[in-house]
């Protein structure tokens, strides 16, 4: 629970420190935070989407499987994105609307992994009076293995 | 029946889980994802318009669709020894408390590469009125050693 206790759930806090669309520089790395992924965090995420596969919950089953131990579902990057994002990052700006995502999966994340994120805005554009930013992201484990990589589009609040 | 690469055909479907959306399910997704954007929890804030859009109340996280599609794909792939490798999605309609959504997959193509085998899947999420709320495509790998 340590992570949940320190995580700032009020997305208005530090809102004034965040970059608006005009200030976001495509190509510039975003500041990110390492995150220790716990079994409890994986399982809370799983419950929120109704995931109940034993690979995420049953240690004995997972150990006997080809994965050799508990893993997180591929979509765990949904949690990792916010876990690795500091409070002053524009990804947390209230009103940020997700317009679509694409993700590629390499290795599963596991309980106890220390996850790091390399991320940046890659592009920004205006379409039908809406302000878009394309972000790209790569998550790594403590061994330097790529967990997954992905790209998303958000519509920035005006 | 366990999925088998050879026996899969274009047009085969994968039925995902039905998911009832409520204020509680959206709140649980906030806790599970740490995405506390007020779009998903603040009724007063959602009285505002966003550009030209007024959602008329809190909306489900788009990524909740993504998580459900993933659940469908992995539950289909794991028993076959297959690996979910890619998912691309776009949201086409907001989802609100009271909706029931369900992901579906349709096999689009099979491809053998130098070292592996791949299945391309069109995915969509529909609501209780049979409207599409999310669309996308996925790629599942069937490693050669998984052949039975």
Structure described in brief:
The complex is a heterodimer of chains A (158) and B (148). Chain A has 158 residues and is α+β, with helices and mostly antiparallel strands. In chain A, 20% of the residues lie in helices and 29% in strands.
Q: What does this protein structure show overall?
A:
The complex is a heterodimer of chains A (158) and B (148). Chain A is an alpha+beta fold. Chain A has one domain: Hotdog Thioesterase (Thiol Ester Dehydrase, Chain A, Roll). Chain A has helices spanning 2-6, 39-48, 54-57, 59-64, 77-83; strands spanning 35-36, 97-105, 114-127, 130-140, 146-155. Chain A has a 5-stranded antiparallel sheet. Chain A is elongated and about 55 Å long. The N and C termini of chain A lie far apart (35 Å). Chain B has 148 residues and is of the alpha+beta class. Chain B has a single domain, classed as Roll (Thiol Ester Dehydrase, Chain A), CATH 3.10.129. Chain B is built from 2 helices and 6 strands, in the order ββααββββ. In chain B, a hairpin with a 4-residue loop joins β4 and β5 (117-126). The relative contact order of chain B is 0.23. The chains are: A alpha+beta (158), B alpha+beta (148). Chain A binds chain B through residues 4, 7, 9-12, 44-51, 53, 55, 66, 73-75, 78-79, 81-83, 92, 94-105, 129-130, 155, 157-158, and chain B through 17, 19, 25, 28-39, 45, 50-52, 61-64, 66-68, 70-71, 74-75, 78, 81, 83-91, 136. β2 (97-105) of chain A pairs antiparallel with β3 (83-91) of chain B, so a sheet runs across the interface.
Q: β content of chain B, as a range?
A: 25-35%
Whole-number total of structural domains of chain B: 1
**Main beta sheet strand tally, sense and closure of chain A:** 5 strands, antiparallel
Query: What is the assigned CATH homologous superfamily of chain A?
Result: Hotdog Thioesterase
User: Sheet with the most strands of chain B?
Assistant: 6 strands, antiparallel
CATH superfamily of chain B: Hotdog Thioesterase
- Judged by helices, strands and strand pairing, the structural class of chain A is alpha+beta
| Residues in β-strands, percent of chain A | 25-35%
Shape assignment of chain A? elongated
What portion of residues of chain A is helical?
Answer: 10-25%
- Decide which structural class fits the backbone of chain B: alpha+beta
C-alpha end-to-end distance of chain B: 13 Å
**Would you report the number of β strands of chain A?**
5
* Mean residue pLDDT of chain B: 93
Strand order of the largest sheet of chain A: 1-3-4-5-2
**Count of separate structural domains of chain A:** 1
Rounded radius of gyration of chain B (Å): 17 Å
Please give the CATH architecture of chain B: Roll
Which chains have the largest interface? A-B, 43 and 42 residues
């Amino acid at each position: 629970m340590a992570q949940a206790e320190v995580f700032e759930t009020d997305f208005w806090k530090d809102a004034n420190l965040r970059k608006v669309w005009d200030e976001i520089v495509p190509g510039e790395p975003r500041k990110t935070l390492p995150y220790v992924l716990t079994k409890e965090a994986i399982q809370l995420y799983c419950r929120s989407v109704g995931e109940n596969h034993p690979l995420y919950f049953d240690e004995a089953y997972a150990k006997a499987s080809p994965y050799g131990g508990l893993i997180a579902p591929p979509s765990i990057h949904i949690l990792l994105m916010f876990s690795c994002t500091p409070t002053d990052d524009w990804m947390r700006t209230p009103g940020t609307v997700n317009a679509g995502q694409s993700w590629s999966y390499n290795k599963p994340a596991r309980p106890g992994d220390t996850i790091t994120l390399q991320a940046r805005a890659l592009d920004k554009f205006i379409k039908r009076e809406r302000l878009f930013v394309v972000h790209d992201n790569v998550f790594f484990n403590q061994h330097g293995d790529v967990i997954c990589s992905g790209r998303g589009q958000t519509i920035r609040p005006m | 029946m366990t999925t088998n690469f050879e026996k899969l055909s274009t047009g085969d479907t994968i039925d995902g889980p039905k998911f009832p959306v409520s204020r509680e399910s959206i709140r649980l997704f906030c806790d599970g994802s740490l995405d506390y954007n007020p779009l998903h929890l603040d009724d007063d804030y959602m009285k505002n318009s966003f550009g030209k859009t007024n959602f008329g109340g809190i909306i489900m996280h788009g990524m909740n669709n993504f998580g459900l599609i993933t659940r469908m794909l992995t539950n289909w792939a794991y028993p076959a020894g297959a690996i979910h490798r890619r998912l691309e999605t776009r949201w086409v309609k907001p989802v609100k408390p009271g909706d029931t959504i369900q992901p579906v997959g349709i096999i689009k193509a099979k491809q053998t590469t130098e070292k592996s085998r791949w299945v391309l899947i069109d995915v969509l999420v529909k609501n209780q009125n049979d409207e599409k709320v999310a669309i996308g495509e996925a790629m599942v790998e069937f490693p050669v050693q998984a052949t039975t």
